[in-house]
Amino acid sequence: MVENMSERHDEARDAVLDAALVHVPFDGWSGETLRRAVADSGVDPALAASLFPRGPVDLALAFHYRGDRQLADWIAGPDGPQGGMTARITQSVWHRLQLVAAEKEAVRRGAALFALPMHAGDGAQAIWHTADVIWTGLGDRSTDHNWYTKRATLSGVYSSTVLYWLGDTSEGHAATRAFLDRRIGNVMQIEKAKARLRENPLGRMLDRGAGQILSRVGQRRTRPPMPGSFGR
User: Fold this and answer.
1) What is the rounded CA–CA span in Å between residue 206 and residue 203?
2) What is the dihedral of CA 213, 216, 219, 225, to 10 degrees?
3) Full-model pTM
4) Contact by Cβ (8 Å): 221, 143
5) Whole-angstrom Cα distance, residue 18 to residue 43?
6) Residue range 108-164, pLDDT digits in tens
7) Contacts of 122 (CB under 8 A, 6+ apart)
8) What are the angstrom distances between the C-alpha of 89 and each of 73, 159, 209?
């Protein structure tokens, strides 16, 4: 019964979201878009209000997290990323963009929404979640401070790539792909430098010190639920 109800809620959420994407390019992620989407989808307004309790911001988050679920399925599937870790990370970020290539204006409107101070935390959480989906999907099982640093670094790569992509008019977004390759390359150079640092006694000492500090924040043995994730 609970599972059936959850499925019905997922279907209703997707129906409203699909209807909303027709209006977002004109009205943004707004109350007007949500109102029109509920009417167009035929979803009961009371149910829609429970699915999107904060209105437009929850609608925009539903769009983002649906893309993350699709990304997770792709990573785990037979057509997922191939090659070494650097290649697989790059392919995963690129595929995440391809998933919303037809909805570029919706992404642009979402970026504007989450740039507002009142929603900046939701936006940061959404980007972090995308980075977590990629690292977890690629088999990362770290539980120490590396859990944080990997996701923080990839969050920076992903967010900067999205912003570049939004302004990219090159054919097939080739310029964005080149930008992504450069960003990933820069990150890997940093990681190589960190590895060399850890090879000497002073570096190992500094690394242990950083680990002890971050371990006080709490090791990532289990992941807490993330707000606005709509039961990812």
Assistant:
1) 5
2) -120
3) 0.84
4) yes
5) 12
6) 999 999 999 999 999 999 999 999 999 999 999 888 888 998 999 999 999 999 999
7) 57, 61, 114, 227, 228
8) 15, 14, 28
